[in-house]
Each structure stands twice: as structure tokens, then as C-alpha cells.
Design goal:
Shape: globular
Radius of gyration: 24 Å
Mean pLDDT: 95
CATH topology of the largest domain: Rossmann fold
Distance between the termini: 68 Å
CATH superfamily of the largest domain: NADH-ubiquinone oxidoreductase 51kDa subunit
CATH architecture of the largest domain: 3-Layer(aba) Sandwich
């Protein structure tokens, strides 16, 4: 009997030896004359256990990890193909508390299936949402998305249904669906994990979006630093075209939808939707003035939906299970689940998908296990390199868009980077301004010049030069950038600086 052994093909797992582990298992099985099928799945998101090897047994999948190539011989000696005991044995994968206590909706198949197997995708509920959309009117599809309460998971948290309604209501001879897969925030990797682990889910979501607003062409604007996503997505699109899920007649519906992957320009600012559209048109990635909004005048001047990977990949579930099903998760205006990404000085880094309402303390200690250094945590930065720093006294903060906004913070794309008590917050504030100076598109003066001057002011503070006057100047500069910048790049750069000044003033006095 063939035994299935799952070894992740996810970038993180591969970077720490998953390919070598897979090759070693295959070689050892061949030498022993054992019938083993190696399945390269996505990652379960428990990165401290990667490479995580799973074996399919009569009682379910049994996990072992982290597995090094040198561990393979002892795994075979322990009869791991039948779930045998070993120092690396973690038990039934689904019973590992880190996974068991999550609500995996968008990520329900990631790490479970072969990412490119259309049969496994369909067996796990794939295409159900699209089939429902095909027999629904465009307005009905949009109504389901509205009912779900889904908000953009890319950072701005704008209600997805309202954006779609705007594009639906805007007459045009051509409309577009654009997926923002330019995942550039530090400490974020959910988009990459989903594209590598469940690409058909994203494709299905984009087709549904096309049906909802009358768009026949879609583009995935992919971060150039994601070569595995590039290969996986293009192969997935090829297979979808061959199977009739993409093309002139999607699943026999008489609706057309064509999809293409475009590599990004390697610039952080291209994660901003209008700069992304400029880049997609073959121009320099510069921010456009708004209005008009992309929903009215977007790609090539046509109405365009721009959503990020997680937003679009959540849509098939909404159509398959109904908007109310999704809305029943979460709290307040923050409905559904959030894909949180833990990194930095943390013992158990990885991805957690939970309904809104979990507190930072629960996330950092019950899932993250506290700091990797063993020292007390001092702060976290939420929402990427332009997100505010949150001190330990605010770790009771529930992960909720409005709750974060009330304390001057943001959830953004769900990246949470942890720091222990050795961190110098003045240096972190300087880094935010330095980052902005490097990544600014240069179109507006507050961002282009303000970031450079901000670095100079912090350097003078560090040298003890007119500290009080320069602290006042720094606050004034932040205010100018926040209210005078053309886009969120310059407008949000002050957030980490201001939060560092507010919560950690002692670091600016040394």
C-alpha cells in the first residue's frame, strides 16, 4: 500500500532544508523497497517546526518536526510511516494546539493539499463558490460580499462589498480585476503562503469578482521577490485554462475571464494601489492623486477592483457558505477572521488565523510563546514598517480595527513583529524615516523631503544637540508628513515615530 508523506514546498520550509528532507525520504524509501509517495504541500504556518513532515496513517496525519536530513534514517528506524514513536513526533497534526485553536477559513486548505492538484482542491470544497456565483446575478454576488462584512485585508480595511458595488455601478466597455500581491510589509507572509499553498483559491476569488462586476480580464501583480509564487501561479493558471475554469467560457457559463501574472517593479510604493496600477501600465510606480478612485478610473482608465490576496481568496468561501456564515465570526465592524503573522523576537513564529477579538497578549504568549530570547517583551509593531509601536501595557488590546484605531495603531495586513526589552526605540523610529526616504516615490514634498530631514533630526537628538528643540521639531515634521503627504506612505511614516516618542520617551533622552 502506498504511504503518502507530506513535505512542504513553502519558501520558508525550503529555505531551511525541506527539499533535502524530501529527497532523503525518497532515497531511503527506495533503498528499503517501500512504496512512498512524497506530496509537496504548503506550510501549516508553524515555522519553528519546519520542515514539518506529515505521514498519512489509518488514524489521520501524524506530524514530525522540525526534521533535518540527518533525522530521516532514525525516522524510518522508528517506523514513522505508520506513525511510530520518535523524539520529533508531534502527534496528530490537527490536534496540535497551535492549529487546533485556530479558525482556519481562508487558509482551510493551505498545508492540507497538494497546491496544484485540481482534484484535491475540488474534493476540499474548491469551485463551490464559483458555481454558486455562476447561477447568481452580479448584484446578488455583491450583496453576499456586503453581508459578510469582509473588509480589505491589505491594510486600509475598506469594505470590500462597497468597492465592488461602485465598480458594478460604473458603466464601461471594459473592467478589470487586479490582485495586489506585492506583499512588501516587514513581518508579513500570509499572501505568499496562500499563493504557494492554495493558488486555485485566489484564482477562484478573482473569477467571482469578475462575474460580480462584469470584468473579463484580471491581473495578479506579484512581488518580484516571490519566484516560487510566480512558478506556482502560472502553472495553476495553465491548468485552469486547460480545464475550462479560465478563458472565453468559464465553466460553461458563457462568461469570459482571462488571468495573467505580472511581476512587480521591486518597489515598496507599488503596494499602494494607484502606484501599482501605474506600474502595471508600464510606467514609473508613482502615486496618483485621488479622486478619481480606481473603482471609477483605474487600470488603463477603466473601472477596476483592486484587492489584496487574502481578500480575494476569502471570497469563494462567502459564496459557498453565505455571507452570514462569515459575518458570525469576529466582533463589531470587524467581521470574519484575520490572518496574523508573528515574527521578530518570538519563540513560535508563524501564521495564525483567528476571528477578530483575540488580544495581543493571547496572541503573543498563548500562540507565540513569548520572546525567543527569554527576556520580557517590550513592544510590538503591528501593521508593517509604518505601523505604530504598541507597549506591553496595551497588550490587552483586542485585534479589532476600531479598537486599534482608538489607540493610534492599526492592524494593517496582520503582521506583528515582537521586540524584547533590549530594543532601542529611538533607533526604530529612525529606521521608519530611513525606510521612507529609501522607498518614497518622490512625487510629494512632505514624504520625499520630510523623511530625509527626519533622519537628520533624530541623529541630532542622538548626539544630544539641542535635544528639546529637536524633539519639538520632530513632532512638527511628523505632523506635516501625516497631513500633507499625497498617500499613506508619507502619511503613515510618522506613526512609528510618534508612538516611539509617546510610549518610550526615555530612549530619546539617552
Amino acid at each position: 500500500m502506498t504511504v503518502k508523506v507530506y513535505v512542504p514546498c513553502d519558501t520558508t520550509a525550503v529555505s531551511i532544508g525541506a527539499d533535502r528532507v524530501a529527497a532523503q525520504i525518497s532515497a531511503a524509501a527506495g533503498s528499503a523497497g517501500l512504496d512512498v509517495m512524497i506530496v509537496r504541500n504548503g506550510s501549516r504556518g508553524m515555522f519553528w517546526l519546519e520542515p514539518l513532515v506529515e505521514v498519512e496513517t489509518s488514524t489521520g496525519r501524524i506530524a514530525y518536526g522540525p526534521v533535518k536530513p540527518s533525522d530521516v534514517a532514525s525516522l524510518f528506524a522508528s517506523d514513522f510511516l505508520r506513525g511510530g514513536p520518535h523524539a520529533l513526533r508531534l502527534g496528530a497534526t490537527d490536534e496540535i494546539p497551535y492549529l487546533k485553536n485556530q479558525e482556519r477559513l481562508t487558509f482551510q486548505r493551505v498545508g492540507v493539499i497538494d497546491p496544484l492538484s485540481m482534484e484535491e482542491y475540488a474534493a476540499q470544497g474548491g469551485w463551490s463558490g464559483l458555481q454558486q456565483a455562476i447561477v447568481s446575478a452580479p448584484a446578488q454576488i455583491v450583496a453576499v460580499v456586503k453581508e459578510s462584512g469582509l473588509r480589505g485585508r491589505g491594510g486600509a480595511a475598506f469594505p470590500t462589498g462597497i468597492k465592488w458595488q461602485t465598480v458594478l455601478d460604473t458603466p464601461a466597455d471594459q473592467k478589470y480585476i487586479v490582485c495586489n500581491a506585492d506583499e512588501g510589509d516587514s513581518g508579513t507572509f500570509a499572501d505568499r503562503m496562500l499563493m504557494e499553498g492554495d493558488p486555485y483559491c485566489l484564482i477562484e476569488g478573482m473569477i467571482i469578482a469578475g462575474l460580480a462586476v462584469g470584468a473579463t480580464v484580471g491581473y495578479i501583480y506579484l512581488r518580484s521577490e516571490y519566484p516560487r509564487c510566480w512558478t506556482t501561479l502560472n502553472e495553476a493558471i495553465r491548468r485552469c485554462e486547460a480545464a475550462g475554469w479560465l478563458g472565453k467560457n468559464v465553466a460553461g457559463s458563457n462568461h469570459a475571464f482571462h488571468l495573467e501574472v505580472r511581476l512587480g517593479a521591486g518597489s515598496y510604493i507599488c503596494g499602494e494601489e494607484t502606484a501599482l496600477l501605474e506600474s502595471l501600465e508600464g510606467k514609473r510606480g508613482e502615486v496618483r492623486a485621488k479622486p478619481p478612485l480606481p473603482a471609477h478610473v483605474g487600470l488603463f482608465g477603466k473601472p477596476t477592483i483592486v484587492n489584496n490576496v487574502i481578500t480575494l481568496a476569502t471570497v469563494p468561501l462567502l459564496l459557498a457558505r453565505g455571507g452570514k456564515f462569515y459575518a458570525d465570526f469576529g466582533q463589531g465592524r470587524s467581521r470574519g477572521t484575520l490572518t496574523l503573522q508573528l515574527s521578530g523576537n518570538i519563540q513560535r513564529p508563524g501564521l495564525i488565523e483567528k476571528a477578530f477579538g483575540l488580544t495581543l497578549h493571547e496572541l503573543l504568549y498563548e500562540y507565540g510563546g513569548g520572546s525567543a530570547s527569554g527576556r520580557p517583551l517590550r513592544a510590538v509593531q503591528a501593521g508593517g514598517p509604518l505601523g505604530a509601536y504598541i507597549p506591553t501595557r496595551d497588550f490587552d488590546l483586542p485585534l479589532d480595527y476600531e479598537a486599534f484605531a482608538q489607540r493610534g495603531a492599526m492592524i494593517g495586513h496582520g503582521g506583528i513583529v515582537a521586540f524584547d526589552d533590549t530594543v532601542d526605540m529611538r533607533r526604530m523610529a529612525r529606521f521608519a524615516l530611513e525606510f521612507c526616504a529609501e522607498e518614497s516615490c518622490g512625487k510629494c514634498t512632505p514624504c520625499r523631503i520630510g523623511s530625509v530631514r527626519g533622519v537628520e533630526v533624530i541623529d541630532r537628538i542622538a548626539q544630544g544637540e539641542d535635544r528639546d528643540k529637536n524633539l519639538v521639531l520632530l513632532e512638527s515634521l511628523c505632523d506635516t508628513m501625516q497631513h500633507g503627504s499625497l498617500c499613506a506612505m508619507g502619511g503613515m511614516t510618522p506613526f512609528p515615530v510618534q508612538s516611539a516618542l509617546q510610549h518610550f520617551p526615555e530612549d530619546f533622552e539617552r
